Amino acid sequence: MICSMEISYEFDKWLHSKWQRNTRFYTLTLCQNIYGEWMITKTWGSAMTRGFGKSKDENCQDYQSGLQTYHKLQQRREKRGYQQVN
Q1: pTM value?
Q2: What are residue 7's phi and psi, to 5 degrees?
Q3: Which residue among 10, 24, 25, 26 has its CA within the 20 to 30 Å range from the CA of 76?
């Protein structure tokens, strides 16, 4: 049995931002996964050591809740002294 499902991606709504403080970096991405569901990917680490750092995916109920979380995380970076670099 073959299951056919049409997934609609809304690339124009995807968001990405980069932050830096001293030797630390932080990135946020609001996008859709392979199933079309909204998610936020957070990546952080040291810009001075080898390796990519750590990453965590967070599923969102819908685009609006993902957008609220994305903006909340941006505000947290600013409060912690990070500067947006993009």
Answers
A1: 0.86
A2: -110, 130
A3: 10
